């Protein structure tokens, strides 16, 4: 990367690091990653989804299975650490969206859509 | 004015500065030049349009099991070869590839320092493939 581009990138990174919404997002994400109870719920949910898909393929899926999966999904979504993370992510996307618009307007194409890693399909 | 408003303005100003620095890179300048060359090259634009339409049609007919699949595939390959041999289009694809590589490298640099992927978190939501 050339020196001028790196300097401009460093300046941009520094202003992002000083923003409250971004600081709140980083802290919410850290809490999300380190919440043992939520981690356990998400692991159980992942295992249940696999079981659900297998039963669906075998034709042995029951209403009870569907209810169990829905119940666990609701528990994950309602967990305070998860809701805080979702809120923080929505907020940060608004702030970063403004930055991306400023970048994209100058460049003439969507910076984020072009620079993002390829989607795994 | 609140601190948050200050930093939001600082951020958008810094984003514009960054865009200005991107616009000064050799990769971006080459992309701009070749885009301008394409605007002035009617033949290349028509060929590109024809190729994109053939690609789209082949994808669609693949989806509903079209009967002329072999003919379409042959036509697509012929058009692809013409696209590759067209100097404006081959220069355009090379310039696009280099610019995208430069932008991805920049995003990786920012991701390492920020602790989150700026582009991934910001890009418009879209369907897969």
Give a structural overview.
- The complex is a heterodimer of chains A (121) and B (129).
- In chain A, helix 2 (20-34) packs across helix 5 and helix 3 packs antiparallel against helix 4 (63-78).
- Chain A has helices at residues 3-17, 20-34, 36-58, 63-78, 80-107, 111-115.
- Chain A is elongated, with a radius of gyration of 20 Å.
- Chain A has a single domain (8-115), classed as YheA/YmcA-like (YheA-like fold).
- Chain A is built from six helices and no strands.
- The model of chain A has no long low-confidence stretch (mean pLDDT 92).
- In chain A, 84% of the residues lie in helices and 0% in strands.
- Chain A has 121 residues and is mostly helical.
- Chain B has 129 residues and is mostly helical.
- Chain B has a domain at 25-109.
- Chain B is 83% helix and 0% strand.
- In chain B, helix 2 (26-39) packs antiparallel against helix 5 (87-114) and helix 3 (42-63) runs antiparallel to helix 4.
- Chain B starts with a helix and ends in a 7-residue tail after the last helix.
């Amino acid at each position: 990367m050339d020196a001028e581009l790196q300097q401009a990138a460093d300046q941009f990174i520094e202003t992002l690091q000083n923003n409250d919404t971004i600081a709140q997002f980083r802290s919410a994400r850290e809490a999300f990653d380190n919440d043992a109870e939520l981690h356990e719920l998400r692991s159980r949910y992942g295992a249940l989804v696999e079981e659900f898909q297998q039963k669906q393929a075998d034709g042995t899926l029951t209403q009870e299975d569907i209810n169990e999966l829905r119940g666990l999904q609701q528990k994950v979504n309602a967990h305070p650490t998860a809701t805080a993370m979702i809120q923080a992510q929505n907020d940060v996307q608004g702030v970063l969206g403004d930055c991306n618009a400023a970048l994209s307007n100058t460049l003439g194409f969507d910076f984020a859509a072009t620079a993002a890693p390829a989607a795994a399909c | 004015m609140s601190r948050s408003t200050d930093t939001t303005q600082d951020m958008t100003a810094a984003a514009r500065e960054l865009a200005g620095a991107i616009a000064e890179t050799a990769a971006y300048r080459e992309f701009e030049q070749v885009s301008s060359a394409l605007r002035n090259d009617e033949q290349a634009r028509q060929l590109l349009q024809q190729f994109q339409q053939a690609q789209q049609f082949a994808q669609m007919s693949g989806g509903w099991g079209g009967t002329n699949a072999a003919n379409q595939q042959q036509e697509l390959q012929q058009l692809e070869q013409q696209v590759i041999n067209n100097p404006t289009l081959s220069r355009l694809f090379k310039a696009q590839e280099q610019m995208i590589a430069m932008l991805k490298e920049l995003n990786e640099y920012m991701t390492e320092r920020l602790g989150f992927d700026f582009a991934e978190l910001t890009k418009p939501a879209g369907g897969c493939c």
